[in-house]
Amino acid sequence: MPILFDxxxxxxxxxxxxxxxxxxxxxxxxxxxxxxxxxISDTDLSYLLPAGSWSSFSPCAADxxxxxxxxxxxxxxxxxxxxxxxxxxxxxxxxxxxxxxIRYKGHAIRQGKYALAGLPAVYAAPEEGVETLDVTMEDxxxxxxxxxxxxxxxDRNVITRAAVVKNAGSAPFSILKAxxxxxxxxxxxxxxxxxxxxxxxxxxxxxxxxxxxxxxxxSLRGSSSHNHNPFAALVSRGADEDHGExxxxxxIYSGNFAIETECDPYDSARLVMGIHPxxxxxxxxxxxxxxxxxxxxxxxxxxxxxxSRTFHKLYRYNLCRGEWKEKKRPILVNNWEATYFDxxxxxxxxxxxxxxDLGIEMLVxxxxxxxxxxxxxxxxxxxxxxxxxxxxxxKALVDRVNGLGLKFGIWFEPEMxxxxxxLYRAHPEWCLRAPGREMSLGRSQYVLDMTRADVRQNxxxxxxxxxxxxxxxxxxxxxxxxxxxxGSALLPAERQQEVFHRxxxxxxxxxxxxxxxxxxxxxxxxSGGGGRxxxxxxxxxPQIWTSDDTDAVERCRIQYGTSLVYPASSISAHVSxxxxxxxxxxxxxxxxxxxxxxxxxxxxxxxxxxxxxxxxLVRKQxxxxxxYYDVIQNGDLYRLxxxxxxxxxxxxxxxxxxxxxxxxxxxxxxxxxxxxSFVRMKGLDPNKRYREDSGRVYSGDTLMNAxxxxxRGWRDGDSLLLHFREIEE
Length: 729
Ligand code: DGJ
Known about the structure:
Elements: E1 3-6, E2 11-16, E3 19-25, E4 31-38, E5 89-92, E6 103-111, E7 131-139, E8 144-152, E9 158-167, E10 173-185, E11 190-198, E12 201-209, E13 214-219, E14 228-236, E15 246-252, E16 257-263, E17 269-275, E18 282-284, E19 289-291, E20 294-300, H1 303-318, E21 332-334, H2 336-339, H3 345-358, E22 362-365, H4 393-403, E23 407-412, E24 416-417, H5 422-426, E25 446-447, H6 453-469, E26 474-477, H7 499-517, E27 522-525, H8 535-540, E28 543-545, H9 552-562, E29 571-576, H10 589-596, E30 600-604, H11 612-634, E31 636-641, E32 649-655, E33 661-668, E34 678-679, E35 689-692, E36 697-699, H12 700-705, E37 708-709, E38 719-727
Parallel strand pairs: 21-22, 21-30, 22-23, 23-26, 26-27, 27-28, 28-29, 29-30
Antiparallel strand pairs: 1-2, 2-3, 3-4, 5-10, 6-7, 7-8, 8-9, 9-19, 9-20, 10-17, 10-18, 11-12, 11-14, 13-16, 14-15, 15-20, 16-17, 24-25, 31-32, 32-33, 33-38, 34-37, 35-36, 35-38
């Protein structure tokens, strides 16, 4: 029974794996947060609450004696009635006032994990024993009924949260803010870790102590963005990969989001996570409901590494869906960096022929196959084949490629429209636009109004025609600019601030329709590289193109940061040409393979231009991919040397669930003359004996304590892959 309610003290205790989460209803009906951390046995934790308040400047809530919101830990804090910290909820009533006060009305405990209407969320099989707690709060003035949902996994340190706001009153009101989760901590002795970046430099790790201020990690770009990821962790000072506490917060959402932290003068800390409140207002008529995206909370008292491994398993097995969720992904070759827009059916066929010879399993035709597109300035929206370029049409090409034994994949950028397109000439009103304001161009394109059912229907029909007109096995779904002038022609003035969220809901609806209609197709997410690498997209596409920066040395940081939350199976990574197209850096073929091997593996170069020696290396990598697939994709990740903390090298390791196999990757990002390098392995069985492929045998405890001496005559960009298997003596 992971959810316990003590009716004497009106306390809820949620036991998730080796963690506990406790909150109570106070005599005034307010929901007070009491504890989140390592598992505990007591339920009544009211002794932890402050004994009183100390400042006349902190008003007491009406009818609540000396209770003062200002210094109490709150479960879902509302704005405007005495809690001056960052709020989770703000509702503007018909009278225009936004002061919000919610009190406990009741609760229900249900078997199974709740689902969220129209939004992606983690799910669980009945045998996983997940339970749902639904706490109903109400605002007697506006009639708002707020359902706080908790999903509790009994065998994992995972609690999910979401809120549903229902207008149970008789007058309309507006939601100005409805966060997915809020969390009050009694101390502020934490570092905030989050992932920031930009195009070609996604998800770098930032770690700073909390201070007495309010901070926001977020996006207002209409997508989760290259710049910030919808993830943050609060970790105890000094916590590292293996020690200390880590509280991970991940939002299953692809649009504008905010993760706000605030530390108050009492030295307590608050974190609030959800849809960004800027330019957001959702109108609710009586009887209507609004559902927030889902927040996922992961607790670890065994460091940041254990937090990541919990996220990896949850997202791989309880968020990704469909046929490809656990199926071995085909090794693909994508023609983007091989040809850019300059290709025809013969060039693609030549790449496919070499691919087949080398053991690669799928050809992906990237941007430039449709309308009259030969550069990035036309044809988005015209999803029909350019037969001038692909003579004989798409089916003929796909059949020929299939004839080589290869699958065929194709690129789309469904949400965009070029001013120079038949679609734009027919439907200029289908773009997002703010009346009277000129539309901004990004990469010579506008953004389609995904809030509109007619736009989504058109896209569904055009894409379905392509996907059913030939044997397409894979779709790369790209998104190459952020939203501006986010207005919709179909919505009245008072609903324009719903557009950002409605856009995301429209995107999810189209993705749901297409993935259901074409269940055999493997979808890969993409946004100019990893500009929309978020858990919500993983619900529809089990892998996402990680970055347009394909330089192996740069990828070490990008993939290392990404691995804080996301599993290897989701991190699409390709071997590209050297010198690298983005950085000009030359890196050995082996290193490019060793780094790409840490994800959903493929190639992104012109195979016809490889030397005989390089082709042999491709064959070797293909064999390695098959040999190491299981340990990488189904094993546990241990990060060993961080490329953010070490200027010269980085290392990571995968260990199979039964601890019989391990794979260590070591990369010299920047060489220094005569430098020594030692690495201690992790996660092995101390009592097992492991043979490294070259023959040397070590015991697990030796590898984890004495470690390995990796000092060699390294050069920039060198790397090493060491594979260990248990031997039975
Ligand atoms: C951005 C993607 O990240 C690239 O891989 C490629 O598909 C281009 N778009 C095509 O325009």
